[in-house]
Amino acid sequence: MDDCIFCKIIAGDIPSYTVYEDDVVKAFLDISQGTPGHTLVIPKKHIPDLFAYDEALASAVFARIPKIARAIKESDPSIKGMNVLNNNGAVAYQSVFHSHFHLIPRYTEQDDFQMIFKDNSANYTPADYEKIQQSIINHLGV
């Protein structure tokens, strides 16, 4: 795609700090470095988001993430954990519409990165959960 920054990185038109590349994915340091070692893993095929994956591409991309994550963790003994994030759609904070996965090393609980989830469980009854559950099951297509 001509106007996609990640496609331009894949093509070599924009430089990147590549840490891994093969025929399916490219992994490179995120320019923002949420924490040191923050890496993006992107499929080389332009695909806008998780909803557009087929099973074969999902399998191929996801199969590479643990290897890259282990290499990041092993690169610095002070890394204690890692967040793996994937945002889909503008409302979910996706800013580049070429699917990508953030591998964000975690060093301490005081890292300059936070994920805060609000507990909304008090707002749901068992019937609410069952309605959501059944709707999802009905759309699996199996």
From TrEMBL:
CDD domains tied to this protein: HINT_subgroup
Active-site residues, Swiss-Prot/TrEMBL: H100 (tele-amp-histidine intermediate)
Gene Ontology biological-process entries: nucleotide metabolic process
Residue ranges constituting the HIT domain according to the UniProt record: 5-115
Chain ranges for the short sequence motif Histidine triad motif as given in the UniProt record: 98-102
Gene3D superfamilies xrefs: HIT-like (3.30.428.10)
GO molecular function: catalytic activity
Protein known as: Histidine triadnucleotide-binding like protein
Organism from which the protein derives: Paucilactobacillus wasatchensis
